[in-house]
Amino acid sequence: MAAEVRRDSFKTFWDKYSDKPDTNSMMLNQTANDLEASDRAEILSSLPLLTNKDVVDIGAGIGRFTTVLAETARWVHSTDFIESFIAKNQERNAHLGNISYQIGDAVNLQMEEKSVDLVFTNWLMMYLSDREVIEFLFNAMRWLRADGYMHLRESCSEPSTGRSKSSTMHSNAEANPTHYRFSSLYIKLLRAIRYRDNDGKVWRFDVQWSCSVPTYIKRSNNWRQVHWLTKKVSADGDDETTINDLLKLFSQTWYAEQVAWDAKLDNEKYVWTDKIFSNAIDNEVVPKNSTAYVFTPRKSSPYLHINSHLLAEKFTCNVWNVEMNENFYRTSLTKANNEKDQRVRFGWNESLASSIEYWRQRDASFDCLIGTELLSTNDDDSIRRVASIMKPEAKVVLLEPVDDVTEQPIKERMASYGFKNISVVDVTEECKAAEAAYANDHNLEIDHSDCNYVLIKASL
User: Could you tell me which SUPFAM superfamilies the record lists for this protein (predicted)?
Assistant: First the structure.
């Protein structure tokens, strides 16, 4: 009964906009027409090729994505629980003969197993309860064919309009049942699900990437409009996961973990590596108006990372910062929202290889690489592939934790990846002093590692 009441609250929420089936209502934004086209283009450009593919567009509304999906896909099934939205959807797409329509709630949607190649959603999970999110993702896994994709996009931590009161269509006087969850919770959930099909085969979601929607950064200074692309892949050998176990993690455990990390990192005054990198980076490494690729896996310590905002400010450059930890990715987005420097963007990837593939697909060409733990967290093949997304002669500066400072083996290893002009400097004492000062200034108890540190400079 409680679940039904909850669904009724979401239905009531959207019924308020049913008499205005337009773009503003779809985006709950008074100024939606100013950003709708670019938002839609950015989302659609992130999808895999859909030629000869079958798609389900869930929560499709008036069909602002359905139209373009149907232009390339073999078939699109477009669904929404507001009748007037589907009516407008059918009207605007009457010229397309490869779309079927359904009025109904996403939580009750029934589809054949292994019947689609893409499950497309845009602002859907935020209108589901925690349990409904998990149940929906299991259903999506069931509907997808092997190697099929699912796209999600959600407002994380705050509405799409951010803190703005003038552009939002949410009423201050009325209850808003929307869930503005942490971005980290979605990534962890997607990665944790294990589904066993009727043939006994176990499947999982391979999260290809997570990143902010650029339009909302440019138009609203909001980095918390986040979207993800996942792929259904085999997980044979893994145990299947239960909804109840995942629900406890999603609703309680992961939430508490994120809150704890927020308390430690959200008020970071500076990064302890600031001084180390400031002494190593100049305008030759990071030219004015260039774009830096920053890699910060934070495997050995959550505090071992790079101050991308300082980098952008000091060198007047653009920065793409790769995070590999879901919790620290969320804190980076928080900092971005606070700093509001549009030159700085953050993405989450499971690995360096995944990030490189993301940028190879977009024909990226970065001017320099600034990183931590590159050598200690990646295999040889992944590091060699870095050159595929860098410009010729790109400069490289790395801060690496090592057991022993052995200059020649490090130089030989770097050379084997195609780097040249390699220098290796022992910066252990400087790093330990900087780390201790950081801990003192931030009132943190940090487990200081016994490792040494080297600063590596090179070029391609």
Answer: S-adenosyl-L-methionine-dependent methyltransferases (SSF53335)
Contact present, 228 and 122 (Cβ < 8 Å) = no
Instruction: Looking at the structure, tell me whether residues 414 and 312 fall in a common domain.
Output: yes
Residue 351, domain CATH: 3.40.50.12180
Name the phi and psi angles at 208, rounded to 5. Answer: -70, -40
Angle between helices 326-339 and 183-192 (to 10 degrees): 160
- For residue 368, the cross-strand partners are 292, 395
Q: pLDDT tens across 245-255, in order? A: 999 999 999 99
Angle formed by the axes of helices 183-192 and 130-143, nearest 10°: 50
Distance, in Å, from the CA atom of 224 to the CA atom of 333, rounded to the nearest integer, reads 7
Q: What would the two tokens of residue 243 be?
A: 């909804």
Opening angle at CA 384, ends 378 and 389, nearest 5: 105
232, 148 Cβ separation under 8 angstroms: yes
**Residue located via tokens 């239905």:** 11
Full domain range(s) for residue 449: 266-459
Q: Mean pLDDT across the stretch 44-49?
A: 96
CA dist list (Å): 71 to 55, 146, 156, 195, 347:
12, 23, 30, 32, 29
Mean pLDDT of 383-406: 97
The CB density around residue 445, as the number of other CB atoms within 10 Å, is: 6
Answer whether 158's CB lies under 8 Å from 333's CB: no
Q: How far lies 205's CA from each of 142, 201, 252, in Å?
A: 12, 14, 22
What are the tokens at 192?
């944790």
225 DSSP β-pair partners: 155
Model-wide pTM > 0.70: yes
Q: How many independent structural domains does the chain possess?
A: 2
Residue 319 within a domain: yes
The alpha carbon of 95 is separated from its chain's Cα centroid by a whole number of angstroms, namely 35
**Alpha helix segments (H runs only) across 224-351:** 243-248, 254-265, 274-278, 308-315, 326-339
Q: What is the mean pLDDT of residues 19-37?
A: 61
CB 145 within 8 A of CB 52: no
pLDDT at 176 (0 to 100)? 74
Tokens of 279: 């002494």
Note the residue count of the chain: 460
| Res 46 pLDDT > 90 | yes
- Same domain? 277 vs 378: yes
